[in-house]
Amino acid sequence: MRDADVRDLLVRADERGVLPRLGGMARAGGVVIVSPRYWAFATTDGALHEGTMSGAPTGMRRVPLVRGVAKLVASMAPLFRGRGVAGTGERAFLVFALVAPLFAFAMPGAARWPFAVALTGAILLWLLRGRTLHLHGAEHRAIAAVEANALAATWDGAARPTRFSPRCGTNFAALVLPVTLGAERLWPLPAGAVLTPLAVTLVSLALTMELWHAVQASRHRVARVFLLPGLALQRLTTREPSPAETRVALRAVASVLQRELSV
User: How far from 213 is each of 68, 223, 231, 255, CA to CA, in Å?
Assistant: First the structure.
């Protein structure tokens, strides 16, 4: 789409008032924006890749704990199924990063923490390479513009919505660690049991997802305290985006909204 076409679509989206809830992720060379049904990956060199989301089965959406893990897996669809979003090497590394914690629980205590630190460092280097920090801020700004019906103004640079998001994965990551440590200590089976690493990991992720969504849905100010560590961490995981980087994210937003609303 030409810039003029993107802006025109954003104007019409603003006029709709109520828009779908969007999420996203920043990549080294672009921004992925997702809705319940569609995703789009806009790159800094002007390319646009599009696809559909694979939602969790209806039955799983109603089961506490299970629904959280199912939603987490479904959110990975652009990385694993989308063309142009992640290469084969990146996908292999991501699979390794996802399964590695299962083996960490079976390691001796002396080796577990060095392994966890090394794994965390490798993941951070992978996540934050290139312009990812700035594009992460652009992703948040574009989504905030959707929620404020300020898409056209943000495209023009007349509005600068916040680059911090209560729904960012950084907030989820900040909650996972304490929940996992608690689950590991309270788990009733011996640490050496065959299924303990897998069970503790899945239960921790599921509990964190339930807590995360409960906090976001709550209007009570006390509940928002749980988001403070993640919001503070976003000062490290985001940077102030340039107008051009914000437009990259808005281009992905426009693609998703065009298909969601046929605007």
Answer: 9, 11, 15, 26
The whole-angstrom separation of Cα 19 and Cα 77 is 22
> Is the pLDDT assigned to residue 172 strictly greater than 90?
no
Sign of the torsion formed by the C-alpha atoms of 216, 139, 237 and 122: positive
What global pTM score does this model have?
A: 0.76
For the chain, what is the mean pLDDT?
A: 80
Q: Which two tokens stand for residue 80?
A: 């694993």
Answer yes or no: are the C-beta atoms of 172 and 208 closer than 8 Å.
Answer: yes
The answer to whether 102 and 65 have CB atoms below 8 angstroms apart is no
pLDDT digits (tens, 9 = 90+) for 209-238: 777 777 777 777 777 787 888 888 888 889
- Taking the C-alpha atoms of residue 159 and residue 155, their distance in angstroms, rounded to an integer, is 8
Domain boundaries, the chain: 3-261
Do 206 and 66 contact (CB within 8 A), yes or no?
Answer: yes
